[in-house]
Write a structure and sequence with these properties.
Layout: E1 3-5, H1 10-18, E2 25-32, E3 40-48, E4 53-60, E5 68-70, H2 79-90, E6 93-95, E7 143-147, E8 159-165, E9 168-175, H3 183-186, H4 192-199, H5 207-222, H6 228-252, H7 260-281, E10 290-291, E11 294-295, H8 301-327, H9 329-335, H10 343-348, H11 353-357, H12 365-368, H13 389-415, E12 431-439, E13 442-450, E14 456-462, H14 465-475, H15 484-491
Length: 500
């Protein structure tokens, strides 16, 4: 623990580490430590890119003391959602927060119900009622447009309430977390090996990122050194996951404007990649590959040749897609200057991934934390500064080019280190640690605390979509409502991985 302070001192300590945005807030979460004879606690995790490390500030509440603390949101805007979730999960109140409406727990939950307290059983049957009011703009000539939570496509539920002046979107309030699964509660008392099957199913698009972050934390606690061949395979799998999802996004984004030839080509290319993943892992989501200590199975010479062949075909298809996008002027008119997120906004919200890098904020865990084999790949984040839909499209295309190149280097490394071990022995004792990796949507952060028996006392997961969802409500302002599907798809935000 880098800093242990009282709740009253949290704001001052956090501002000092934050250093006016030089060290972004990557996560903020609560923990119930009453089983250890303490009270509740709040952890604030700040990234230190210059040290490739994270500084953890912990505020410990007295067992019988006040459950309130000064809100960080006015000084650190990225804290807004975290403080609302801490209130929902633990009942710790951020005094002075501008909007303490429920975030995770909807109207069907009772008041004064805090599911991540140890006193609540994982199989508790809960039913109740609480208030939740959507925020809308008021004034003459304004009207509301509700969208969802059930949508026309086969997607997850989310409710959007637009405040309109004619066609222009003045304000958007998003209500999410309709399918909260209680995964952080479900893993309590399990060993890391037992929890791994749950962790790799947090999000279908980010299975490798979630398992890698989780295993990093477990390996730090155990003091285990991952074999080099396993690190190469992990890094290759991470890039394959990124390529698969970026290619899928190149097909999904044109769906916002009905650009059918691009939709079809993107879908075909993604299907090729998912079949490749099935050939590698036995399933289309690369589950079961990464385990604490290394990887479960090798990538054979036959698979190396198949990966080379498939990636070469897909790279040609991506070039065709990029040409289609460039040459279709109507498509360019729709994506340029649409859905803008400025650089300052991206930094204030501690955005991650494509959303951040398209706004000129070069946040990328692969370079910021230099894990796996990335330090050997001469990797640099690909950025644009326009912050619009066009920029998010171009960043994906640029990152695909870099990922294809990295995959070639990693496959060559695998050919040159045949016969090396794939996994190290891992023995757990009590402790806590964090892990971070770059998912297709951005950095994926896990905090893991084990008790003396090596079982999970607390797991906190912050997916890449979590810090980027609040940016969507800003990006749409001033654009017309038919642009919302396009803007939304350009962020490619996930519902499931925030509904952990």
């Amino acid at each position: 623990m880098d800093k242990l302070i009282s709740p009253e001192s949290l704001l001052a300590a956090a501002e000092q580490v934050y250093a006016q945005g030089q060290h972004p807030l990557t996560a903020m979460f609560g923990r119930d430590e009453t089983a250890q004879g303490a009270g509740y606690a709040i952890y604030c995790c700040f990234e230190l890119p210059e040290k490739k490390d994270i500084c953890v500030v912990k505020a410990a509440f007295e067992p019988e003391g006040s459950l309130s603390y000064p809100s960080l949101t006015h000084a650190i805007p990225a804290a807004a959602w975290y403080e609302r979730e801490i209130k929902d999960m633990f009942g710790l109140t951020a005094e002075g927060h501008p909007d303490l409406r429920p975030l995770v727990l909807h109207e069907s939950y009772p008041e004064d119900f805090y599911p991540l307290r140890k006193s609540v059983r994982v199989n508790a049957k809960v039913r109740g009622e609480r208030q939740f009011k959507m925020r809308t703009a008021k004034g003459q000539g304004l009207f509301e447009v509700p969208v969802g939570p059930i949508h026309a496509g086969i997607i997850e539920p989310g409710h959007f309430r637009f405040s309109q002046a004619g066609e222009s979107m003045l304000q958007l309030d998003a209500k999410l977390f309709f399918t909260h699964r209680g995964l952080e509660k479900a893993v309590e008392g399990k060993t890391p090996a037992e929890a791994l099957h749950i962790v790799e199913r947090i999000c279908g698009a980010c299975s490798i990122a979630n398992t890698w972050s989780f295993c990093q934390a477990a390996e730090k606690i155990a003091g285990a050194a991952v074999p080099r061949r396993a690190e190469i395979i992990r890094t290759l799998l991470s890039e394959l996951e990124r390529i698969t999802n970026h290619v899928g996004d190149l097909g999904n984004m044109p769906a916002g404007v009905g650009f059918n030839p691009a939709i079809s080509l993107g879908s075909r290319l993604k299907e090729q990649l998912m079949r490749l993943c099935e050939g590698i892992a036995g399933n289309r989501f690369l589950r079961g590959m990464i385990v604490p200590g290394g990887v479960r199975q090798d990538i054979t010479q036959e698979l190396i040749e198949e990966i080379h062949s498939t990636l070469d075909d897909v790279a040609e298809g991506v070039e065709d897609l990029a040409a289609m996008f460039r040459e279709q002027e109507n498509f360019q008119n729709r994506i340029r200057t649409t859905g803008i997120v400025r650089t300052k906004t991206a930094k204030d919200l501690a955005m991650v991934g494509v959303g951040a890098r398209a706004s000129g904020y070069a946040h990328d865990s692969r370079s910021d934390f230099a894990y796996g084999i990335y330090p050997e790949l001469d990797f640099k984040p690909y950025t644009k500064t326009m912050g619009d839909v066009a920029a998010r499209l171009l960043v994906r295309i640029g990152e695909l080019s870099a990922s294809f190149e990295m995959a070639d280097k990693l496959l060559e490394m695998l050919e040159n280190c045949q016969g090396m071990p794939l996994c190290a022995d891992v023995e757990y004792c009590g402790g806590e640690a964090w892990g971070i990796s770059e998912s297709p949507r951005g950095s994926n952060f896990h905090f893991l605390a084990l008790d003396g028996a090596g079982r999970i006392d607390r797991l906190f997961v912050r997916s890449a979509s979590y810090p980027n969802w609040p940016a969507l409500t800003i990006a749409v302002q001033g654009d017309i409502i038919p642009d919302f599907p396009l803007i939304n798809k350009s962020f490619e935000l996930c519902y499931a991985c925030i509904d952990r």
